Amino acid sequence: MAPGSLNAPAPPIAGRQTLRLLARRSLSPEVFELDLERPPGFRFLPGQRLRIREGGVERDYTIASGPGEGVLRILVRRVPGGSISPFLCEAPPGTAIAASGPHGYFVFAPAPRTPVFAATGVGIAPFRSMAASGVRGFVLFHGAGRAGGLFYREFLEPRAARYRGCLSRQAQPLPAGTRPGRVTDALREELAEGDYDFYLCGRGEMIAEALQVIDARFPRARVFTEPFS
Amino acid sequence: MKVATGSGDGGRTSLFSGERVLKDDERLEASGDVDELNAVIGGLIAALPPEAASCAPELRTVQSDLFPIGAWLSADGSAPSAALLPPLDPEGTARLERAIGRMEAALPELRSFLLPGGCPAAAWAHLARTVCRRAERRLVRLGRGSPGEAPAWRREALRYLNRLSDYFFVLARTLNRVAGVEETPWRREA
Ligand SMILES: Cc1cc2nc3c(=O)[nH]c(=O)nc-3n(C[C@H](O)[C@H](O)[C@H](O)COP(=O)(O)OP(=O)(O)OC[C@H]3O[C@@H](n4cnc5c(N)ncnc54)[C@H](O)[C@@H]3O)c2cc1C
């Protein structure tokens, strides 16, 4: 379960780089997967992010690819009227994108306790990277409106001890492996007593509510959070 | 970056190492002292008289130095995330020593205890000194709870905080001198 790369010394915090946009795929009407060129020698730990700068504004995007993959992949949700996400969702391949990194401390801490990953929407990105680096045996709750928003399900489900899509707006009957409601409902109803390390990533409201559930049900747990909003 | 609202309403918060602790946890108390010290330095900078405005950049450097100390205080050396924290740079302590030497050279010799105070900026500097001492005491107490040799960050943080309170004492005297305010010596029969 403990990937060797995590025991490596802290990677260098690289300065500003210009990364070429290699490809972009649409995963849903408002979410895009971007492949960025990975500069030679650029190291990061799964869970870390890039800081992208455009027009004097900076925003963070978590790396979804693993440390062993040749490109840097990010998931971007288009925020209408936003300063940076529309640019990333529209820039033609070949565009030079100013970025710095890796940043952040939301990294996997191997432990005897079961890891529980809880994500909303594009908050799945760090867990895709952690799974790609060899992390296994995790419980994953991924929240989305409909099944089309369960990004990377085919990749994550076989690597998880338990995978559950939490769909808040999907019409019945629900696809296999999913439940109605939100991630926090799953945390409340689907986890047996036990020792867990929780990793929460995505919407700030989900994280705040999940913390209340965890404090009430699992007061001895470790909790790592990465709010996107 | 927004302030995360509501996530700590239950009286708990996460340490850097992931543990959920009550907000009166001693590690939080210690990083809270460092945070308070930082805020007091903000007050000190705001109170600097025009003649001492040149102190502001140095004080802002001190404010920046305190952030990683706060982070280390809520980290646990065993967490992989701790490996990503920058080590505390001994140059910070060396810089304080040079500043103390520079200021002391221009001050009259100290012949008695001084009543903390004087011009507003000097009063803030004395307050910073006392909050700094509290942060240092708290750090010492934390160290007592963990056996074995102190980790490098804690040794460096102790050196830094120890020197920093000396720095504030000398800075308070300097600010009074620059403002033309006389120091008030302590007398047994006040
Ligand atoms: C640690 C971290 C990691 C992140 N990782 C990712 C990631 O992997 N993928 C990703 O897509 N985003 C991620 N984000 C969010 C991202 O950094 C931007 O905040 C987001 O893309 C919006 O930026 P913008 O410049 O397009 O919009 P802005 O110009 O910042 O916002 C425009 C308007 O939209 C509102 N708004 C901002 N964000 C949202 C939102 N999420 N939903 C609805 N309204 C919003 C703002 O309040 C504002 O009114 C991350 C954020 C953080 C802090």
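Chain A is about 15% helix and 40% strand.
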